[in-house]
Every structure is written in structure tokens, then in C-alpha cells.
């Protein structure tokens, strides 16, 4: 199972490049190992082209390296905190995707003005607190902010988006959709305020998309 | 014939990616089966890389699955309504392309300020009503709005563009051109209002492009 | 020689795609046949993927088809007019590249605020008159506007850029640089007016770039 | 060693294309030859596709051609000046990447409003003086401006960014990150001023990123 996750993470990091969410080495994906208190994550500062299944590292839920030759991502503590406090989460993604990071820089939630936002996020995409690497404040900020929202994405203040999902692929999807709506809503607002989608419609769209969309 | 349409739809979905109209699985193309009350459409939530001719599904004009192993696109009801009420339409496309969707979010038609808009759209690109998945209100909104315009594109309020064409390729072309002009006109207006193309010139350009442009 | 130009034009049309100057079939490149009153140009409405050396068509300086199985580009009359009235021109390009076309939509010349503009354009990029397909008014607008500028690019009002060069490659380069500076200057001006480069510096930069840059 | 640098520079120029920092031939990378008063640099006006290890040229620290069949980059004098006056610098990059060049056109430093800027730049990205090709004023402007900043990037007024690094790869990374933050901060500021990251946090982030990030 860990071997499968290592391979999947190589592909999912390439999705970050493909959808223009990252430059150079500035983003990472992790996946919880089902049934164990472990997760697999990108090594720190390694370019996406150079990633191999073997280069991925395995950490425990305190962020300590358990398996692997390389140092784990410098965001490992934040991923670990999320897995420890959200047993429902199987994947975490962090990027500095430009439009989502611009909303994060202003500390402004993305309002739910598109049916596609209602589908995926079930409302606005919230802003988390300013927190920097060094303790568990980033992880705590993610978990506390998302506790009050249906959104799988949070914009950490002056930093960038973190997304979660039932598995790593779902978290990558949320990162892709987060940047997509961050961009579209930014563009829309350049000529004035935009009307939010009605709350009842948001609820119906979210319910349908989460339960009917896709293949059974 | 259905087999040919299945193959063509794989290629046309790749065009949505190529021209940056969609992310992840958020867009779909369908094609009417000539001479039958059927159309072929993308399966729901399947990634563009994974699409094969066999994965496409066939539906009737009430949107019911007729042939195929997968669930049809969640926008199938809207496509079906258009085919049922517009016998001249052979292809339908739906995307959330960012600039067109931004105009849709504001509920603002794209004014005809470019000769390229006159060519392809014969005037402004109109806005359709706010409508959500669940009944025939999206399909009805598309058909009623386009009845009053030469444009093959409509911006459904808070949602995104739908385009039609004599076949699926023409509808994809309209989706590509819709996003292109949505972007250019957005950029142009950032420094103030832009003068529309004179109505008589629009008519001459539209007539020429529809009847002379391309190969006989 | 005509065969060489046919092959080169296939490659140069791919450059239009590569640098994001065109979508679908909306742009064209032509090349004068040295020593003859002829030029080679793209056929109308053919996708860039489908272009072959054989698909290119040869026209005379009145825009009449001389050789080839397909109808010439619908912009052929404009290209022909330029070759007829500017014997120094060996290549012409037309696109609807988004930022250049946005300046054209506003009818606003691009001010020379970057050293890269001084290098390639020797000053501002001017705006040509509003003119539509049907007579020689586009060609005339290009020639008359460029007569008063060092710029190899002109922004035809409400339409888009045309560029010229000593050969087709130089005209493509001018189209690429025109969109590049159109975009950068647009972005720069979003936070207020931008100081032009001093006229004497423009002259020195232009002279150096035209005479020293590149390989002897 | 020179052969290795020639090969590496081919790859690094492709990175400029990959990350959308350059169009046509408008950007260059150089690498100091360790232990010698020499550096390797791109030839002038050669397209990125045509670059080979053999096409690269070797110059001394006065910018004179020492080895190679082609004329060196027209920015060679600026690169030479930097190597001569900054013995710690092993690589230099110059581009006209659009967002960074837009800030340069306005002569406005990029404020440190993102944790990613604190990481890589340790504060704002400063603006250097207006200077044109012909003497050592560009090189001097780079060196004097960067003497007062931790940033490896400087925005030369009305021109574009120059970046430095311990080697050519680090300078390319700085160019990539410079454009990335130039874009994100531009987007962020479109809806009003953005709060800078607290100075103490900037120092902690910079220290950590420079000393802990990546592999030992």
C-alpha cells in the first residue's frame, strides 16, 4: 500500500505542474497510509521532474521521519497536524497558486458567486490565521478554520492555500478547483461587486455534487 | 456513425484542455446523432485523459441513458433540452472557462467591440437566467436566450458559457472564440469603456464570415 | 524557393500557437517570393495542425490566387496591398493576440515605456484606422500608419495587430514582441501612468538593437 | 568544467521558456567558471531551440570574448560587471518576464507581503536605476542596488529583472520566484493595499529557508 501511494504521489505532483499551481519546488502533496498512523509526503526542495516513488518519505503523525533517505517537505508539520486531528482526511495539498495566494495575501475569503463553487466548496473559501513554520500553528489554523466550513480549502493568511480530501487525489482536485474559482472570481470582481449565489441554491448544488456527480 | 461521433468527442474534449477552457473534469461536449433522436455525451466526472470512444454514452432527447456503461454528464438534461428544441443544432458544449464565466458571474453581456466578435457571434454574447441543475430550467434558459441572438454562445448567470453549433466541432469552436473574446474585451475595458463596432459593419462582417470564410 | 517558403510558413504558423498569439484558425503569416510579384499565404479557415507545405497558396500582389488548391486567407487582400506598396517588406503577420487586440479595441497606441520596446519598435506602437474586409482599406491603413513610425507593428482599430518584417520570420518576431510588450505595459499601467523612456535613449537603443544585436 | 557549464546552460535556458519568463530570444543565463576569471554565456539573438553546448561562448570579467564562434549576449557587459564585483556570485540571469518587468516599468519595489517572498528574498525586491546598454551602468546599478538588500533579484528601471545566485541554477530559481511573486502581489493589490509580513517573521522565515529548506 505504501508503495502504491509513493507512485500515486509522483503523478499527483505532476498534476500541480500541469494545472499551473506551482513553480520550481513550491508545493507538496501527501497521502495518509490507511489503517496506520503514517503518511507519505514529498521530500523537501526536490524538483518535480526528479521525483520518483523511492524519493518520497514516510512520516508519523507527529511529523517525524519514519522511512526514506531524504528530508521531508518543510510543510510536514502542518500535514501531520491535519492527519492527527482529522481522521476523515486522507490527503493534504499545499501550493502557492497565484490567484488563491492573492486572496490569502489580502486575507479575504472567496465569496460563493459561482455554481461551481457551490458544487465543490459548499460556500465561501475561508481565510486562516497568519502563522509561520516552526510550531503547530499552521496545522492548527487549518484544522480550526475548516471545522466551521464545508470547504476543503483554506487560504492561510499571507501564505497560500491548503486543501484536504478523503484521499490525495481529492485534495489535489480541491487545489485545482480552488485556484480556478479564485481566478474567475477575481476577474469577475474587477468591474464591481458580484452577487452571491442564493444560500438555498448553494445547499442544493453542494448536496447534488457530493452525492450524485461522477460515477457510482 | 455513433462510433465516429464517439471518437470525435474524445478529440474534441482534448481541445477543451488545449485551449484552457476547462480544469479537471469541469466541461463537456455532446454531438447529435444525425437522423435519430439521440446524442452522444461525456460520462460524468471522468478525467479527460481517461476518455475513450467506448466511455462515451448515448442518450435520448429526454436525457435518458440509452447506451453505455457509465453515468452521463451531470449537464445531460441541458444538452437534451437544446437538441429537442433546436433541430438545427448538432453539437453543444459547456465549460467554466474563466473570462466567460467572470462575465456570467456579473450577469453582463459581452459587447461587440471587436471585428472577430462580429464575425463569429454577429453581435453581443448574451446572458441567460440563473438556473440550477434539477429540472429543465438550464436548457430552457439557453434556448430562450439564444432565440433572440445570432450568437452561438450564451453566458448562463453565475454559472458559465454554453455554446451550440451545426455539429460538435462548431460548438467547440464557438466555446474557444467565446473565451478568447471574453478575455480580450475584459482586458480592453480595464482602462475604460470601449466603443462598439458599428451595427452595419457588424452585419457585413457576420454575413461574410458565415458565408465566405474558410473552404467551400 | 517557393517550396522553401511553403515549408517555412508551416513552422512559423506553429510559432503563433507556441507564443499564444492565436486560437483556432484566427491568424496568418505570409512571405513574399523574392524577385517575383508573388507571395505565399495560409489557406482560409484551415487549422494549424492540418497545415502542410502543399496546403499553402500562392497569390499575386492584387491578392488573386495563382497556385494552390485551397482558398487563400480571408486577410489576403491586406497582405497583398502591403507587399505592393512596401517593396522592403518580405513578410506580414496578422493575429488577434489578446493584449495587443485590447489596445486596438480602445484605439490606444502602446507607449514606449520599456527598453525592449525601444529595441524592437523604436517608439510607440501606433493605431491604424477602423477598416473592414471588402476593399483595400485595411491594407491602406497599415501602410499609411506605418509610414510615420519605425514600428513594424500597427494595431488596427477594433480589430488587432498586423506586423511586417524583412522576411516572414522577422514579421513573426515582431508579432511575438508586440503581444509581449502589449501585455507588460497593460499590467504596468494598472496602478497608474508609467514614465516613457527618454527619446534620446530610445534612439540609441533602437540603433544598437537594429545594427549590433544578434549574429553578424 | 567549462563543458559541463555549457551543457547546463542549455538546460537552464529551457527553464526560462518552461516557466514563461521569456519570449523569442529575450533573456539570458550565465555561469561563472569556478577558479577562473571567466564565465559562460548565451550567444546573442540565438533562439532557445537552437542552443547547443557548443554555441555557448566564454568571456572574461571585462566582457571580452575568449572562446566561441558566436557573438556573446548583448547583456554580457552587465553579467561581467557583476562577476567582477561580486566574487560570491556564480550565476546571473536576465529576463523581461512580464509581471516583474511591469513593476520595473513603474519603478516600484515589490513589497514583502508573502511568506514565500520572505523565504527567497528576505524582504522587498528592490528597483535599480535607469541605465542603458553601452557602458557599465547596468552592471553598476545591479551591484549597488543589491548591496543593500538580501534579495537576489533587482528590477532595473524601465527594463526588467536581473537575478544572481551562488550558481546559475540558483539564479534561474530566483528569476522564476521573482516573476511568481511579482504576479501574485500584483493580483493581490488590484483590490487595495496589502499588509506586509511582520519584519521579525520575515527574518525567521528567511533564516530557516536559507539554512534548513531542501536537502542537507
UniProtKB/TrEMBL annotation, chains A, B, C, D:
Protein name: L-ribulose-5-phosphate 4-epimerase
Pfam families the UniProt entry points to: Aldolase_II
Species per Swiss-Prot/TrEMBL record: Cryptosporangium aurantiacum
Family affiliation: Belongs to the aldolase class II family. AraD/FucA subfamily.
Catalytic activity from the UniProt record: L-ribulose 5-phosphate = D-xylulose 5-phosphate
Keywords, ordered alphabetically: Metal-binding, Zinc
InterPro entries in the cross-refs: Aldolase_class_II_sugar_metab, Aldolase_II/adducin_N, Aldolase_II/adducin_N_sf
Statement: the UniProt record of this protein carries the keyword NADP: no
Top-rank EC class of the record's enzyme: isomerase
GO cellular component: a single term: cytosol
Any one Gene Ontology molecular-function term assigned to this protein's record: metal ion binding
Cofactor: Zn(2+)
UniProt key word Secreted: no
EC number: 5.1.3.4
Gene Ontology process terms (BP): pentose catabolic process
Boundaries of every Class II aldolase/adducin N-terminal domain copy: 7-186
SMART domains (UniProt xref): Aldolase_II
Amino acid at each position: 500500500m505504501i508503495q502504491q501511494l509513493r507512485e500515486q504521489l509522483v503523478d499527483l505532483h505532476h498534476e500541480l505542474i500541469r494545472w499551473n499551481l506551482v513553480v520550481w519546488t513550491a508545493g507538496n502533496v501527501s497521502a495518509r497510509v490507511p489503517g496506520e498512523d503514517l503518511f507519505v509526503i514529498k521530500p523537501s526542495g526536490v524538483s518535480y521532474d526528479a521525483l520518483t516513488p523511492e524519493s518520497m518519505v514516510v512520516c508519523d503523525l507527529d511529523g517525524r521521519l519514519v522511512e526514506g533517505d531524504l528530508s521531508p517537505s518543510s510543510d510536514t508539520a502542518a500535514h501531520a497536524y491535519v492527519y492527527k486531528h482529522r481522521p476523515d482526511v486522507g490527503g493534504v495539498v499545499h501550493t502557492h497558486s497565484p490567484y488563491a495566494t492573492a486572496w490569502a495575501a489580502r486575507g479575504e475569503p472567496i465569496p460563493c458567486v459561482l455554481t461551481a463553487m457551490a458544487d465543490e466548496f459548499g460556500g465561501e473559501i475561508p481565510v486562516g490565521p497568519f502563522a509561520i513554520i516552526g510550531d503547530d500553528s499552521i496545522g492548527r489554523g487549518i484544522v480550526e478554520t475548516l471545522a466551521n466550513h464545508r470547504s476543503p480549502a483554506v487560504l492561510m493568511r499571507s501564505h497560500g492555500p491548503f486543501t484536504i480530501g478523503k484521499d490525495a487525489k481529492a485534495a489535489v482536485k480541491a487545489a485545482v478547483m480552488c485556484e480556478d474559482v479564485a481566478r474567475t472570481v477575481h476577474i469577475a470582481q474587477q468591474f464591481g461587486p458580484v452577487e452571491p449565489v442564493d444560500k438555498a441554491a448553494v445547499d442544493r448544488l453542494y448536496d447534488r455534487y457530493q452525492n450524485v456527480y461522477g460515477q457510482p
